[in-house]
């Protein structure tokens, strides 16, 4: 997720980086399915762009969904810094796509609302354990839905709201 590091450097005004070129490369990655998705790029990006989410038939769909949303936020911040307002607006909107895999009816251990596997038809995977750990071929990479459901560093206020408010979020 180098987009995040580039955005951090850009907003801090770190010199020595061609941010215009970096933005173009970031946009390319955000819109082009890589030929080797296990090695580089945004695997599953064609689904993310066409459907707004990555179905669970694509490995690491859940972790990719929240990571791509954060990377889109990073692209928006770089574009904003460069005065590319149309791009910034588009990618700020895309950064909310983490919610497209948010299943507000999913419950576990007294809490509701989790990043949840969804198929190509928009149907939630019914029998899924949000504590299930997976690695390369699973829905989440080296983590679980419980962990990734709290990974929205660019929109914490909305995450708190989706979790039922501040008090409920703190309990969670």
Task: Note the topology.
Blueprint: H1 2-11, H2 19-31, H3 45-51, H4 61-81, H5 85-94, E1 102-108, E2 111-115, H6 145-148, H7 156-162, H8 166-171
Q: In short, what is this structure?
A:
The protein contains eight helices and two strands. It is mainly α.
Ends distance? 27 Å
Q: So how many helices?
A: 8
Radius of gyration: 16 Å
Annotation, overall tally of beta strands: 2
Q: From the helix content, strand content and strand pairing, which structural class follows?
A: mainly alpha
- Written as H for each helix and E for each strand, in order along the chain, the element string is HHHHHEEHHH
The profile of the biggest β sheet is: 2 strands, antiparallel
What best-fitting shape do the alpha-carbon axes yield?
A: globular
Strand content: 5-15%
Share of helix, binned: 40-55%
Task: Output mean pLDDT.
Answer: 96
Largest beta sheet: strand ordering: 1-2
Poorly predicted sequence stretches spanning 5 or more consecutive residues: none
Could you explain how this protein is built, in words?
The chain is mainly alpha-helical. The protein is 45% helix and 7% strand. The protein has eight helices and two strands. It has helices at residues 2-11, 19-31, 45-51, 61-81, 85-94, 145-148, 156-162, 166-171, and strands at residues 102-108, 111-115. A two-stranded antiparallel sheet has the order 1-2. A hairpin with a 2-residue loop joins strand 1 (102-108) and strand 2 (111-115). Helix 1 packs parallel to helix 4, helix 2 runs antiparallel to helix 4 (61-81) and helix 4 packs antiparallel against helix 5 (85-94). The protein is globular, with a radius of gyration of 16 Å. The model has no long low-confidence stretch (mean pLDDT 96).
